[in-house]
Amino acid sequence: MLTEYMVVSALLIAIGATGAMVRRNFMIVLMSLEVMINGAGLLLIVMSYYLGNVSGQVMFIFVAAVAASETAVGLAIAVMMYKRKKSVDINDFSILRK
After folding, report:
1. Residue 2 C-alpha from the chain's centroid
2. What sign does the dihedral 62-64-67-71 (CA atoms) show?
3. Domain range summary for the chain, segments of one domain joined by +
4. Dihedral of CA 31/37/40/42: which sign?
5. Is the dihedral of CA 37, 42, 44, 45 positive or negative?
6. DSSP bridge partners of 89
7. CATH fold of 2-97, please?
8. Cα 63 to Cα 80: distance, rounded to the nearest angstrom
9. Between the chain's N and C termini, which has fewer beta carbons within 10 Å?
10. Are 44 and 62 in contact (CB under 8 A)?
11. pTM attached to this predicted model
């Protein structure tokens, strides 16, 4: 049972990493990062259950809070870029350096 959950977690992390590296749309990259964070969270919860320890589950609460704040900041950046450039393509984000 543990092995299957670990494989699913690894697949989620791999799918998220692939999406973050391949796609050029900022919204897709944000979703890919969320998939990676959920894969890591799944691994935290599974290992916590397997070891009989609640520290992994408590850690996941903090990870979920950080993921929610990351999404809020990312969406704010995306809205700002769309207003300014009418695009959410990652190549257009060089304007943030100025």
Report:
1. 23
2. negative
3. 2-97
4. negative
5. positive
6. 25
7. Helix Hairpins (1.10.287)
8. 26
9. C
10. no
11. 0.84
Q: Are 27 and 88 in contact (CB under 8 A)?
A: yes
Between CA 30 and CA 35 the distance in angstroms is 9
CB atoms within 10 A of CB 22: 10
Cα separations in angstroms, 24 against 10, 58, 82: 23, 34, 14
Q: Tokens representing 59?
A: 């850690």
pLDDT in tens, the chain (98 residues): 889 999 999 999 999 999 999 988 888 999 999 999 999 999 999 999 999 999 989 999 999 999 999 999 988 988 888 888 787 777 777 766 66
